[in-house]
Amino acid sequence: MLLSTDTMPGSLQRLIFLTISIALLAGCATVNTGYRVADTIASEHHFTREYVDTGLSRLTTLYNFTRAGAPLTIYIEGDGSAWRSRHMLSDDPTPRHPLVLSLAAIDPSRNVAYLARPGQLTASGAVDCDPAYWSERRFSQEVVSALNAAIDHLKAMSQSKEIHMIGYSGGAALAVILAAKRNDVVSIRTVAGHLDTRAFCEYHHVSPLDGSLDPIDYAVSVKHIPQRHFIGSKDIVVPAFIAQSFVEREGDKKSDRITVVDGVSHTNGWQEQWQELLAIPVN
Fold first, then answer.
1. Per-domain residue ranges for the chain?
2. If residue 112 lies in a helix (H) or strand (E), which one and from where to where?
3. Exposed/middle/buried for residue 156 (C-beta within 10 Å: 0-12, 13-18, 19+)
4. Is 83 helix (H, G, I), strand (E, B) or coil?
5. How many CB atoms lie within 10 A of CB 216?
6. DSSP secondary structure string for all residues of 150-206
7. What is the pTM of this model?
8. pLDDT of residue 32
9. Which CATH number does the domain 35-278 belong to among 3.40.50.1820, 2.40.370.10, 2.60.120.460, 3.40.50.2000?
10. Helices 99-106 and 270-278: angle between axes, nearest 10 degrees
11. How far is the C-alpha of 55 from the C-alpha of 52, rounded, in Å?
12. What is the pLDDT of residues 208-227, one digit of tens each?
């Protein structure tokens, strides 16, 4: 049934109009929060923004290079705000609070780059790829190839020979898969990492990610690369057994490559401890 305001008193019409306007403004604010926060972080920490055309999506990169040829540290964003609810996709997967960019800004490395995922922090503010690439196909070969192209571009600009890969949540899955497909990755760090897709989906009672690659299938391929996997003790989104499953597949029966960070959840507490965590050696 359609609601008509033609016969309503003027005061009621104004109230309805005001309510709708506030709701629309709130919605716009929610959508744009991540963009504004990212702009602020980038400005305060002297990051340069560049968009890399990959064919799949025009990926957003933010970087701060201060020494040509020094190793390149790449931070890969998580899944962001990919879902409105358990059963409804978001119109824009941009994270409202870009934790990964905040971590990159803390990193003292000479050459640091942040890599957004398809559909995130786009140049126009409008999504430029199929929503499948931030849902069931978010770890697909097409996404891996797109990120690989962006990494090649960043590596050429920094003149780096070696890459340190850091991924958060879903970005951790991609960090592992990318490392398995490259020959220049000298370390892997994951934060609250989605490292076993099958176990993750079973744990959350959600459908399998059809069309996506599973990082645990690449565990043996990257076992020779020094690694550190950080897990929050209060993380109920990606609990510790996910990382344990991954390192056991690598052959690390004692979980020596895992560091459980006390008091940290999936999203809270990482930024405050990141400098200290970066100082922990990779294994």
1. 35-278
2. strand 111-115
3. exposed
4. strand
5. 21
6. HHHHHHHHHT-S-EEEEEETHHHHHHHHHHHH-S-EEEEEEES----HHHHHHHHT-
7. 0.87
8. 54
9. 3.40.50.1820
10. 40
11. 9
12. 998 999 999 999 999 999 99
> What's the CA gap between 141 and 212, in Å, rounded?
7
- The amino acid sitting at 236 is I
Residue 86 confidence (pLDDT) above 80: no
Q: How confident is the model at residue 83 (pLDDT cuts 50, 70, 90)?
A: confident
Reported as a single tens digit per residue, the pLDDT across 150-186 is 999 999 999 999 999 999 999 999 999 999 999 999 9
**Structure tokens of 246?**
């991954």
For residue range 213-269, list pLDDT tens digits in order.
999 999 999 999 999 999 999 999 999 999 999 999 999 989 999 999 999 999 999
- How far apart CA 64 and CA 47 sit, in angstroms, is 5
